[in-house]
Structures
1.
Amino acid sequence: MASSWSNWSGFVKAVPKLIATPADAGELAELVRSAPDPLRVAGAGHSFTPLVQSDGTIVSLEKIEGLVSHEAAASRARVRAGTRLGALMDILQGIGQGLPNMGDIDRQAIGGALGTATHGSGTTLGAYHTQLEAVQFVDGQGKLREFSRAGDRDMIHATGVALGAFGVLTEVTMNNIPTYRLRRRKWVLPIGDMLRDFETMMAAHRSAEFYYIPYSGYAQFIASDVSAAASTPRPTQDDEEGLATLRKLRTTLRWLPSLRRLLIKGAVKKVPAEDYVQDWLNVYASDRRTKFNEMEYHLPYEEGPKALAEIIALTEKHFPEVYFPIEVRSVAPDEFWLSPFHKRLTCSIAIHHDAANDPLPFMRAAEPIFLKHGGRPHWGKMHSQQAADFKKLYPRWDDAMAVRRDIDPQNRFVSPYMAGLFGIEPGPFGIQQ
Ligand SMILES: Cc1cc2nc3c(=O)[nH]c(=O)nc-3n(C[C@H](O)[C@H](O)[C@H](O)COP(=O)(O)OP(=O)(O)OC[C@H]3O[C@@H](n4cnc5c(N)ncnc54)[C@H](O)[C@@H]3O)c2cc1C
């Protein structure tokens, strides 16, 4: 029976022949062997690219979730891959462990977050996949396979960021840290100061990021550092309220840019500073209720401020409909073959466009700026890159593709979108030559 599927923003839709929710690895393996082609696995559908889209089978691991086991001394936990980050936070806190870092939300499944190299911010903090100690997955022939860092480091580096194309993850073992508290501070400063002091300010905190508020000339800087102090109340979230104000000014003053700039600047300068201490799980994630589409590029660190200045100029000159803040983060280098942070300290810049409007003109105009500065796209966010481009951006690309062929020789996990990403030409009988 056909059903429909769509991603969080509503931009990507699919009408597969089958949507399946296996209860365990055995049922999943049977689906991989027999369900209609191509078989794509969904996490929480929070990617903006058609990674999950399939007219064959979409598999959700929502029933394959929860804690499998843990080792207190090593702060290590093995969890099922369908576990949502929100549930994972509670599980880990309950066993005295914490995630070293997190992105903006806690809605993703851990398998989905790993699949696209989901990240938070911090010059010394890696993305989620850098926590991987072991992976267990069902390969393209329905066989359960397992690799550990100790046993086969290359396979961990090959399959840690895998876009749902190197097997369906069933369980992952993650290296966490003992539970901790964070002091989080937020304040606004002129964007000129932020761009000038970018490297020192980003490196001065365990985790630092900032948002540029379009038309304001100001950035909001967010710094988090480990703290032994007692918890203090987290201020009530006003992100959505702030967005609503920016949207209203965009709509009413769209053709009066000077007045829009004046009012936004005045309002942003008055945004009060924040300073509070909370357990790690109460700090990182926020609610994102206003739907948007997003592009994020991961640039060589030192290119960040230059690219950002160009993106701001483009936005304010040519795209008056844009009102979402531009998000800037840093991510530590790692060794994973398809990680956008592969062997380089990164500055990530993310632009957002209201989901009610067509995002493509803005994204198409911004992408050449990111590419000119050596950017690698976030796998889960809008981009137009294809296999030939990735081959130049990823030194271990060919090695990764060889591992993919070994895991999925019959291209069970290859949809038309994935074929474009991986440069897979179907040969006679649909099999890659
Ligand atoms: C509001 C919002 C905020 C966001 N904030 C951030 C952020 O702060 N930082 C950031 O980096 N990204 C962010 N993202 C992007 C998001 O984290 C990624 O796109 C992530 O991959 C989505 O996870 P998901 O569980 O929804 O996976 P999906 O989007 O459903 O799937 C993502 C990929 O993982 C694969 N996959 C899923 N489960 C498995 C599995 N069990 N085995 C193998 N492959 C699997 C899928 O096939 C697909 O290729 C945000 C997205 C939204 C909508």
2.
Amino acid sequence: MRAAVQTHRVGNTPDLQSYDHVVLFTSGGKDATACMFDLLDRGVNPARIELHHHEVDGRGPAFMDWPVTGAYVAAQAVAFGVPLFRSWREGGFEREMLRQNAATAPIQFETPHGLMRAGGGGPRNTRLLFPQTSADLSVRWCSAALKIGVGAASIAGQDRFLGRRTLVVTGERAQESAARARYSTFEPHRTDTRDGSRRPRHVDHWRPVHGWDEGRVWDALQRHGMRPHPAYELGWSRLSCMACNFGSAAQWATIRLIAPALFERIAAYEDQFGRTIQRARSIRTLADLGRPYPAALSRPDLVALALGESWGLPILGLPSAWTLPAGAFGEAAGAT
Ligand code: SF4
């Protein structure tokens, strides 16, 4: 039975040919994109690879995330020739943040056989608070509620992973932060039940670019001619949510410039909650302290692309025509 096969590893690299499914969790960022190229370069059969994208805003109107991200990830999936499965918590970030004596919302996830729904219910709680800027996921609730928990639900909820070997791949790098440096390169995934008698599934978690520096990541994108997400071209060095709670002064100044209505909605929530996103300063103060990224002023085409919901451009080009985006090697706001 395949689930009983042991994982053979060379160093921290699992035996990639031993897996039935290779599930790459991606938000379209450079590190997950580099993971995809690494899998292909190592000879993993694309027929076994699938992209999973957790939509932070829950398929509703953009609130925290870049409006174009869903379309960008879909264009990547087409370019790679692999399926894309989207998953989200109903109501996304905003509903979770506004929970008041209410249970967390159910999760929906796409599967090869249609849309499924799981979870919801559970204890009633009140948030009425932005996630805290901490590596502790119990207070930085967005990562747990909108990404990690959603990804886990989509694997645990699908019988196609039972009795099979699945490799979950994510793109965290040690260089990003002290917390990420402590992550294991290879470990059982949180959905692993290989030793259970009920619903056993073998699920490993691999971080293939954990030891890579940023230059190696950009080299991979250039070598394959992959256009990076427009957030990088605007000046962001990491593809987090557009309005990530870890945003720098320059990022908040840029958001206020390019998406003033959204900025004001977030600022109004800070007023309503009586607690700012970042403990020390409101986003209005942060924006006053920062200067917008130059590309946000000089490239209205990029701003429109990033704030739109479609992607109609080539995503792959010639490596010789590839250029490093403005945000490369910039401030590392957003890393935990
Ligand atoms: S990118 Fe920022 S706001 Fe979005 S889920 Fe991660 S920590 Fe939360």
